[in-house]
C-alpha cells in the first residue's frame, strides 16, 4: 500500500475506528498504557489499522500500520500537538523547534539545519571520537561496576553540548542536566497517559521533585546562554546561530525563543542518545558474539590505530548493530499528532481536533513487517535483505517535516561509540542490574550496571 492510496481524495469516510478492548472506568486505557504500554501498543494492530483509545476523559486515535503512520507523519493535516506535547510543554516551552508549528517551525528548522547537515558532521568527528575514548579511559580507571545510566547520559550530553554549543561550562553542568532530565522524562510520561491535570499540582514528594528538576533545568539553560554572551565569543556553532537568528521581520528573536530553542535541542539530544547507548550496551551483554564481530571489524578496517570519524562509513557491521538496536529499542517509542482538519485515514473518519498516537516500537517489531521479528539480527540491514522491509516500517528518526534533524549526527556518534567501546571491552551485567525496559517519554533499560572486561 502506498502513502498516496491511504490519503483521502475526499474526506467523506464516516466510519468511526473501533474502540480497543480493555478500557476501565475513569482511566480508560490509560492504566494499560501505564502498566504495560509496550505490550498494549504492540497488539493494537490486531484490533484494526486505526483504533480508538480512552485516556481519562479523552479519546485518542491509535494508528497501527507502517503505511498509515507514514501518511500521518507526511500529511499537513496533522501537527505537533496532543498529549505527548502537552506533557512536554512545561519542559520544552512553546517557542522551540520541537513544539512549534507552521511558519515559526519552518523558520527555526532553517536556523538549526546547517549545524546538522551531512557536510557539517565531519567537523564534529574529533569531539565524538575524543568522548568515545574518554569512556574507555574512565571505565579502565573505574574498576568494579559501572552505572551505565549515568555514563551514557553523561556522554550524550557532553557530545551534544561540545559539538553544538562548544562550551567548557558544560562539564560542570552535565551531571545536573542528566539528573534533572531523568526526573522530568519519567514524570511527563505519566502526565501524558493519565492526564489528571490538577492532581499533579498537589504538593506530593514526586510532584515537588518534578517541579524542582524543571526549575533547575531552566536555570541551567539561562546560565549556558549567559556564559556564552559573557565570553564575547561567536564560534561557528549552533548556539551562535540561535543567538544571531532573526525573525520573519529581520529582528533578533526574543529571549524566550532562544531559551526554548536551547532546551528543545539539548533535551532530545541527550535523552535519545543516552537511552540508545544504554540499549546498545545491554545488547552487547546479551549477545557477546556481536561485540566480538565488531572488534574484528574494527581490527580489519582500522588496524592498530585509534578509530576516527572517517572510518565510520566503512564500519558497516557496527552500523547495522546500531540500526538493529534502534529497531528493537527505539528511544522515541511513542509519538503524537493532532488533526487540524476533518480528515480520513485508512477509510476512517478522523475529526478535526482529534489526538493521534503511534508507536515506532510496535511498528518496528511487527511480525507482519519482519521475519523473526523479535530476534536481534544486524544482518537484516544488509542491502540485499533490507530492501524487503516495508516502507515506514523502520523510521526511528521519523519522516516528514518533523524528522529528527540529527539522524546523521546520531548515527555517526552511536557507531563511533559502539566501535570504540566494543573494541576495548566485553561487557557483563552485575547482579544489581535491572535491564527491564523503563518506560518514560523515551525507552531505555531501567538500571544497567555493568562490568567492562578489557579484551
Ligand atoms: C525530533 C528521534 C537524536 C534533536 C525527533 C523525532 C524523532 C527523533 C523520532 C521526531 C519526533 C516527531 O515526529 O514528533 C531521535 C533518535 C535519536 C535522536 C532515535 C538518537 C538515537 C537527536 C539528537 C538531537 C535531536 C542528538 C540534537 C542534538 C531533535 C530535535 C527534534 C527531534 C530538535 C525536533 C524536530 C522538529 O520538530 O522539527 N528525534 N532523535 N535528536 N530531534 Fe531527535
Automatic annotation (TrEMBL):
<keyword id="KW-0479">Metal-binding</keyword>
<dbReference type="InterPro" id="IPR001128">
    <property type="entry name" value="Cyt_P450"/>
</dbReference>
<keyword id="KW-0560">Oxidoreductase</keyword>
<dbReference type="InterPro" id="IPR050196">
    <property type="entry name" value="Cytochrome_P450_Monoox"/>
</dbReference>
<dbReference type="InterPro" id="IPR002401">
    <property type="entry name" value="Cyt_P450_E_grp-I"/>
</dbReference>
<keyword id="KW-0408">Iron</keyword>
<protein>
    <submittedName>
        <fullName>Cytochrome P450</fullName>
    </submittedName>
</protein>
<keyword id="KW-0503">Monooxygenase</keyword>
<comment type="similarity">
    <text>Belongs to the cytochrome P450 family.</text>
</comment>
<keyword id="KW-0349">Heme</keyword>
<dbReference type="Pfam" id="PF00067">
    <property type="entry name" value="p450"/>
</dbReference>
<dbReference type="InterPro" id="IPR036396">
    <property type="entry name" value="Cyt_P450_sf"/>
</dbReference>
Amino acid at each position: 500500500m502506498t502513502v498516496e492510496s491511504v490519503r483521502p481524495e475526499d474526506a467523506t469516510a464516516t466510519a468511526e475506528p473501533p474502540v480497543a478492548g480493555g478500557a476501565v472506568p475513569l482511566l480508560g486505557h490509560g492504566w494499560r498504557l501505564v502498566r504495560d504500554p509496550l505490550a498494549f501498543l504492540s497488539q493494537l494492530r490486531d484490533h484494526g489499522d486505526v483504533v480508538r483509545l480512552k485516556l481519562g476523559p479523552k479519546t485518542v486515535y491509535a494508528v497501527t500500520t507502517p503505511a498509515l503512520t507514514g501518511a500521518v507523519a507526511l500529511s499537513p493535516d496533522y501537527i505537533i500537538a496532543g498529549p505527548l506535547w502537552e506533557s512536554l510543554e512545561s519542559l520544552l516551552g512553546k517557542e522551540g523547534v520541537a513544539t512549534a508549528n507552521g511558519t515559526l517551525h519552518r523558520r527555526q528548522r532553517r536556523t538549526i539545519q546547517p549545524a546538522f547537515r551531512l557536510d557539517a558532521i565531519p567537523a564534529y568527528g574529533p569531539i565524538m571520537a575524543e568522548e568515545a575514548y574518554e569512556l574507555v579511559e574512565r571505565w579502565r580507571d573505574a574498576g568494579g561496576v559501572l552505572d551505565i545510566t549515568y555514563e551514557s547520559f553523561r556522554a550524550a550530553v557532553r557530545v551534544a553540548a561540545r559539538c553544538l554549543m562548544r562550551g567548557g561550562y558544560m562539564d560542570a553542568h552535565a551531571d545536573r542536566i542528566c539528573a534533572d532530565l531523568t526526573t522530568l522524562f519519567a514524570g511527563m510520561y505519566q502526565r501524558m497517559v493519565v492526564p489528571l491535570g490538577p492532581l499533579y499540582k498537589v504538593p506530593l514528594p514526586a510532584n515537588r521533585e518534578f517541579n524542582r528538576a524543571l526549575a533547575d533545568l531552566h536555570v541551567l539553560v539561562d546560565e549556558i546562554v549567559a556564559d556564552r554572551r559573557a565570553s564575547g565569543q561567536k564560534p561557528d556553532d549552533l548556539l551562535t546561530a540561535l543567538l544571531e537568528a532573526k525573525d520573519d521581520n529581520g529582528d533578533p528573536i526574543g529571549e524566550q525563543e532562544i531559551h526554548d530553542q536551547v532546551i528543545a535541542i539539548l533535551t532530545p539530544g541527550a535523552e535519545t542518545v543516552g537511552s540508545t547507548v544504554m540499549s546498545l550496551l545491554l545488547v552487547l551483554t546479551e549477545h557477546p558474539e556481536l561485540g566480538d564481530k565488531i572488534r574484528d571489524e574494527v581490527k580489519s578496517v582500522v588496524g592498530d590505530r585509534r578509530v576516527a570519524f572517517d572510518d565510520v562509513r566503512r564500519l558497516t557491521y557496527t552500523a547495522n548493530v546500531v540500526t538493529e538496536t534502534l529497531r528493537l529499542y527505539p528511544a522515541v517509542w511513542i509519538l503524537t499528532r493532532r488533526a487540524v482538519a476533518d480528515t480520513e485515514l485508512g477509510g476512517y473518519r478522523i475529526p478535526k481536533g482529534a489526538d493521534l498516537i503511534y508507536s515506532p516500537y510496535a511498528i518496528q517489531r511487527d511480525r507482519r513487517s519482519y521475519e523473526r521479528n523479535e530476534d536481534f539480527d544486524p544482518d537484516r540491514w544488509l542491502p540485499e535483505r533490507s530492501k524487503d522491509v516495508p516502507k515506514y516500517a523502520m523510521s526511528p528518526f521519523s519522516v516528514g517535516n518533523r524528522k529528527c534533524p540529527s539522524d546523521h549526527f546520531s548515527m555517526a556518534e552511536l557507531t563511533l561509540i559502539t566501535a570504540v567501546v566494543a573494541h576495548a571491552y566485553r561487557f557483563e551485567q552485575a547482579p544489581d542490574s535491572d535491564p527491564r525496559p523503563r518506560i518514560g517519554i523515551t525507552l531505555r533499560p531501567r538500571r544497567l550496571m555493568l562490568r567492562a572486561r578489557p579484551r
